[in-house]
Amino acid sequence: MANTIIITGANGSLAIPTIAHLLQRLPDSTLVLTVRDASDRDANTKYLRSTIAKHPKAHTSIRELDLSRLTAVHDFARSIVAEIAAGTLPRLSAIVCTVFYWNLVDPVQFTDDGYEKTMQVNYLSHVALVLQLISSFQSHGGRIVLFTGDSHEPGKNALDKVPPAISSDPAQLDQLVNPGADASNDALGHGMYRYANSKLALVLFTHALNRRLQQNTELRNITAIVMNPGNLAHSRAMLVNTPYKLVFLRKFVLRPLLPLLKMTDPTARIAAAAAIDVARLATNEAHPGERGYFTLLKPDQGSEASRDEMTQEALWLKNVLWVGLTSKDLILVRKSVA
User: Fold this and answer.
1) For the chain, which terminal residue's Cβ has fewer other Cβ atoms within 10 angstroms, N or C?
2) What is the pLDDT of residues 289-309, one digit of tens each?
3) Domains of the chain and any CATH numbers
């Protein structure tokens, strides 16, 4: 059956091997691949095109989408909805949100929407995208795959200086997207805290989303998964907005010593291995009908804070306000904004 899979951050370290796997296994699927810069001036987009070119009969389109602009996200979502309604795109079977952003070298940054950039790119824009596209899934359901990591759990990540924490107090929740100036010059510590909170928010959102999907007779066959794909030693993320000492660590320690690292961290692996798991989850081949938190391909729990239902619900109410959704956008948010 014809279907569409949307992948954000499609020219990333994890996304490209995922796409290669999907093209090989599902040649009849349509892949809508979003990148910030769709031109070949971006070396990563050029590499994405060369990957697609190996499958000349594939149904793919590369589209620009800047997740630091909510208007761009809304416009993209509305375009997809319209194309599916018109029959020019098959209905959705999966949304895979691989976009990654952090900044560990600069003070806090804000988007033109006025939100802290890490939280908007990693979290808010994916919330806006997912919620607007749910009604365009196939009638028999599909998968939403979001990504977290061990950083969302205090004490699990070596770069953790300030433990991630999200309050259920609405007033404090606003500080996630509108924080004040950094309290010190420790760009690495503050940047990692913001990144970890964006990953914690994704886990909280996934649980709140799944409750609503299960309660909706038309949408209950859509399952949301938030996945820790492992510590990816070859990820380009370690080269962007990253202190030189981490760039050095990636090149001379993490990559060459990966077999040894696996002895102390069983989640350490290369992106190509993680990509196979992502593709299997996105297509419901792995754990069909299951939902929730996964570490690699194993159902897991995530941090204790991420399982707090009061915080999940408080964050959900803020989501629809932050991203500008109203009752006309989606049935899942109607009660939230009533």
Assistant:
1) C
2) 999 999 999 999 999 999 999
3) 4-337 (3.40.50.720)
